[in-house]
């Protein structure tokens, strides 16, 4: 197995202890990458929810100067008055909000979903590669105790720097 930006390691040259250390490092990297993968999926879901809300905001029931409930959390709301039915405040990150019209806000969230979706696909490939490397290491650890079994070579993909 070879991959971009990685080095190839012959498992025959590693002792059982070294194989165990490499497996532990791969497991840690895989745990971190899996956590990042879940966070990206969560972010994409939130952007999807925001897009639905923005698109659902075109309802004729939303009228200017009409009292509404504004969600602070999933279970906490405050009363307010709708000042503009054609504009929304968009959280662009790190606590900054930008006023956008409905169409522009929808485009913003669609672009964010596309960007995060691309990152998810890239990370999925990396996670699959790391998972394959763990399997090869586990197989190498098994064969290190059985001298009659040939050992494999695997690609050591150092993809942690891309996070």
UniProtKB/TrEMBL annotation:
GO terms for molecular function: unfolded protein binding. SUPFAM superfamilies: Prefoldin (SSF46579). Keywords: Chaperone, Coiled coil. It holds the Pfam family Prefoldin. Residues 16-43 form a coiled coil. GO terms for cellular component: cytoplasm; prefoldin complex. One of its GO terms (biological process) is RNA polymerase II core complex assembly. PANTHER family: PREFOLDIN SUBUNIT 5. This is Prefoldin subunit 5. NCBIfam families: prefoldin subunit alpha. Belongs to the prefoldin subunit alpha family.
